Amino acid sequence: MTIPAPTIPTRQRAAVRHGTGETATTTIETIDVPQPGPGQILVKINWTGLCGSDKSLLHDDWQAFGVAMLPQSQGIAGHEGAGVVVAVGEGMQRRWKIGDRAGVKWIASTCGECEFCLNGVDEVHCEKQINSGFSAPGTFQEYCLVDGRYTSKIPDGVSDEEAGPIMCGGVTAYTACKRSAVKSGQWLVLPGAGGGLGHLAIQYARAMGMRVLAIDGGDEKRELCEKLGAEAYIDFQKFKAPADIKDEVMRITKHGAHGVVVTAASKTVYEWAPMYLRPGGTMVVVGLPKDPSILAGAPPLVIALRRLNIVGNITGSLKDVEEALDFTARGIVHPILSKGKLEDLDSWIEKLNAGQLAGRAVLQVAAQATE
User: Fold this and answer.
1) Hey, CA dihedral for 234, 239, 243, 248, is it positive or negative?
2) Distance CA 139, CA 144 (A)
3) pTM for this entry
4) Which of 23, 287, 302, 304 lies at a C-alpha separation of 20 to 30 Å from 344?
């Protein structure tokens, strides 16, 4: 069946940033709908995830590191978009057709020619990459213009609501589990396990055969973590000192965990996470604090004597996204969603900042979402 070309309006709604720093806000404005050029496609965004990185960019949290939204973004953040292809530019007709479902990621485009792009596994470090909501308008708009070569196809069995958060949060959790080098039957510790990234990491880790030790606060988080497959749970609120939590990790795992994935951007967690590890263990750095004085590591003596590994992780490759989506298509991993609307973006950012969100937040963008 041939899908007729949709009617594309000339104007669209977008959440545009105004102001700078912590007082920055967004307002819904009417802007032009772009048209795809060679190698590009136009995606009607039905749903977009709200990532902690969106909040950090909108509020200039990383300015101390020299990272801030560029003028090319036009003040439009967002990098977890899912929707439908409504226009296909020259050279993309073999890869995309009208009506295909597409996911827009943090990495919107890569050059495809540098050393990192050509080695087949490392294009996330392309020095010429373009990033949604940072150096290009993001997914907090109804129609998003993207590179057809680097946009992800959403498989059957994955709704737009679920696909959006997998574009960043899901693939980041998945690749962090892989970077931990934890094998089936070995222990992985997840501080902040009940959060937006943590609850996805539990599911990916369990799907990969790992034994999950979840750390978070409260009985509600305990119930969630255990429901998702955590084998053990530590309620940090019940311990007087971080050293006591470390002792409990050692008691449960006997010699320490084989890996720990830090999604909580907390100074205390980063100080103590290496101490949860057994000799030869790996700490994966995921959470990004805005305080540049926070360091991820341990005293050199500890790292050397225990031969610890400390590695970083940020998003994933095009292939990683495909693999992360496949877990959902097969019914193994499902984001827990809190749903809202694009018009209420600022209030959802406040909830995110206050730690009041269950799972991942997704916002309906299109007035009439279609799949």
Assistant:
1) negative
2) 6
3) 0.94
4) 287
